[in-house]
Amino acid sequence: MKSFWAVLVLARFAGAQTAELRVIPVQGNIYVIAGDGGNITVQTGKDGNLLVDTGLAAMAPKAMSEVRKLSRAGVYWIINTHVHPDHVGGNDAFANAVASLDINALGRQDGGQPLKIIAHENVLNRMTQPAKPGETPATGAGLPEDEFSTPFKDLRFNNEAIIIYHEPNAHTDGDSIVLFRGSDVISTGDIFTPGGYPFIDIERGGSVQGEIAALNHILDLTVPGHTQEGGTLVIPGHGRLCDEADVVEYRDMIVIVRDRVQDLIKKGQTLDQVKAAKPTLDYDTEYVSANSFVKADAFVEAIYKSLRK
Ligand SMILES: [Zn+2]
Q1: CA of 94 relative to ligand 1 center, distance in Å
Q2: How many angstroms is it from 29 CA to the middle of ligand 1?
Q3: What is the whole-number distance in angstroms between the Cα of residue 104 and the centre of ligand 1?
Q4: Which of 15, 35, 176, 269 is the most exposed place for a label (fewest CB within 10 A)?
Q5: How many domains does the chain have?
Q6: Radius of gyration of the chain (CA)
Q7: Which range (103-107, 217-221, 224-228, 287-291) has the least confidence?
């Protein structure tokens, strides 16, 4: 049997290695690199670059080249939103390039301050202790050595306040969202994936309750623009750039489906009966397509298992 990682990467990113990356200005100091597994957020300025997530390992050379175009001052920080390989896959490549002072790869001039990789401690724990026998633990330079176990962590870079919030047991048990306070941008990782149902990774500590709590926290932090468009911009783990209204719609969809599943459980229905009742039916046209990563049944099953725990 293929490992979880291989299955995930194959299912979600077939053909990614040949894909082209797109760099999209967000607002303030923030850019997003799309097309590399998960979205890569880049905060850039005179001090250099800070990344939220690093995409797929196979795409790292292309991602480095795009980051270097934004600022030749180099990469100083990586923040990982969670453990999945489409978000941490490029860590090793970036870390190795910094360690070897590969100016071509990263454009760093100084060789001074080392690259720091930040993540919640549950990300490090899951990277170094595989969930299943047969999975290979990560050992490379790209492990987050700057892990935190507190509800949040903050830092300042390019003269901007950056706050990293741990969102317990949401998409996984190690999720972080990152608020760029000056630019007014939030990078959410896979807590928010507007094109499809959320992947609630029960095996890695995710739950629908935590997923909804995390989306509510994102909504606490976003402030709409004057016309209910714009304002705080939200970079999802996958998919298009969004604003507060998009997160509201997504949160409401999950709450409604959660309530339906809860009602069916109260009536004593089994998982198979709950799936057969199709509690997502009116949302499927919007959130499921031929190449969706999370099908309706998988979403319902994750909710059912979260509520039965
Ligand atoms: Zn993920």
Answers
A1: 20
A2: 25
A3: 30
A4: 15
A5: 1
A6: 19
A7: 103-107
